[in-house]
Amino acid sequence: MSHECNCGCSNENNANTSQGLQITTRDQATPLSIQTELKISGMTCGHCVASVTEELKELPGVQNVDVVLDAQGISTATVTATENLSEERIREAIDEAGYKLEAINA
Question: What is the pLDDT of residue 14?
Fold first, then answer.
């Protein structure tokens, strides 16, 4: 694999650099994270946040769930995952928690 850069490396075909760093190609590395923003209605307290967070974290590939509660309106959940999540699975998880998915990436 050839590359053009200004780092001063001279051993292009060796995975180890002179500094002892390991170069990992994208297909072997950790997948990029995908963030999905959800709008959820019916949440009014910390227990609601915990229920939604728990259900969403059970979806395959989910790494993190961050919820901003709006007890008087529509709350926002940002889900970070290693893969795209289907609307159907997201909706099922939120329904299971007892709330309503209003929008995705809104």
Answer: 47
